[in-house]
């Protein structure tokens, strides 16, 4: 008698990992106003807006509210 156990399908940790990457990417591209760099640069990051400037055209193209 032979028992074959085939494990197929997507592991749950892969879905969780991709969901985290997706949420981070969505925040990075669509909503960051200096929050990420403020961890390192402090209040100055909210005036420099490096990520905002980097992703500005992408935000408009993707329809995110900007200004
Ligand atoms: Zn804009």
Number of DSSP helical runs: 4
Computed over alpha carbons, the radius of gyration is 19 Å
Separation, N- and C-terminal Cα atoms:
68 Å
Tell me the overall shape.
elongated
Low-confidence stretches: none
Described by strand count, sense and barrel closure, the largest sheet is: none
Overall pLDDT score: 90
Order of helical and strand elements: HHHH
The total beta strand count reads: 0
What small ligands are held by the chains? zinc ion
Q: What does this entry look like structurally?
A:
With 67 residues, the chain is mainly alpha-helical. The chain has a domain at 32-67. It is 64% helix and 0% strand. It is built from four helices and no strands. It has helices at 12-30, 35-41, 45-48, 50-62. The protein is elongated. The N and C termini lie far apart (68 Å). The mean pLDDT is 90. It binds zinc ion. Residues 56, 60, 66-67 line the site of zinc ion.
Question: Top keywords for this entry?
Answer:
67 residues; mainly alpha; elongated; binds zinc ion; single chain; 0% strand
Question: Summary?
Answer:
By secondary structure, the chain is an all-alpha fold. The protein has a domain at 32-67. 64% of the residues lie in helices and 0% in strands.
Question: What order do the helices and strands come in, and which of them pair?
Answer:
Elements: H1 12-30, H2 35-41, H3 45-48, H4 50-62
The structure holds zinc ion.
């Amino acid at each position: 008698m032979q028992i074959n156990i085939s494990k197929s399908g997507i592991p749950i940790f892969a879905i969780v990992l991709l969901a985290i990457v997706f949420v981070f990417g969505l925040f990075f591209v669509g909503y960051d106003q200096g929050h990420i760099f403020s961890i390192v640069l402090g209040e100055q990051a909210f005036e420099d807006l490096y990520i905002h400037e980097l992703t500005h055209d992408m935000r408009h193209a993707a329809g995110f509210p900007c200004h």
